[in-house]
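WP5 quarterly update. Target: 3-keto-5-aminohexanoate cleavage protein. Source organism: Alkalibacillus silvisoli. Length: 296 aa.
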Amino acid sequence: MTNKVMLTAAVTGAGDTVEKNPNVPVTPKEIAESAIESAKAGATIAHVHARDPKTGGISHNIEHYREIVDRIRESETDVIINITSGGGGDFIPSLDTPAAGGEGTDIQTPKERHKPVGELLPEMCTLDCGSTNFGNMIYMSPTDWLREQATLVKQSGVKPELECFDTGHLRFANQLVAEGLIADDPMYQFCLGIPWGAEADVETISYMKSRIPENAYFSAFGIGRMQLPMVTQTALLGGNVRVGLEDNIFLKKGVLATNEQLVDQAVKQLHSNNIELMTPQEAREQFNLLQPNGGN
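Structure tokens (predicted):
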């Protein structure tokens, strides 16, 4: 093996995938167990959102996050925990109430979005670096809000993964770095193929990689049918990788996946290209992450 990468399992997300694939974990217990099983299959990192156990929809309840994190930490399986800090950013346009948004609008302040990260102190968290058209929804993350959130993350000691859905997000992520709001060597994540963000292809990864600082690390992923092809392409370009039911619910056309199956397939693809997986502890040491007990 000539190279090592981190593999993230994004195990649940917050989208309307629960009714489309019964393997999408919903309760804190299910989410934690799926994270643990993904780690056993080879994942370095478990990226988690919380869902309402009754509805399957998004949850901002800190106790749901706490149960997920506690269950993972109390298990005998080591995995880096990466909590979303995207929180409530969904604005649903409505001609009836254009200023307030329509049904389903869910906006949290920077402090509210940061709360699970600040209280539970995972090793990592995501930081969405801009607003975007997400289908017919607008994900809202204004620049001054992001500066506040980045400051809170830096103060917590948690490593932010700077999520860029388009090239403008990349420019602002670079600005956060330039302003000293990101500690240590920055870590970027290129989120590709989302309608209507940047395309999921090698040219996009190559361009975005060329625009990050020299001391930066990056990962990239594609959604839907582009998830598994992007694993190999990203790793060959020197990036870390991500799979999971947050971004794709199929193992292949017509075959519903589990998180463990997607991780297993990614591991096979990486090994076939002489690329090995970092262990969680190797990643903590290389990227100066918090230790599971909250220390460096």
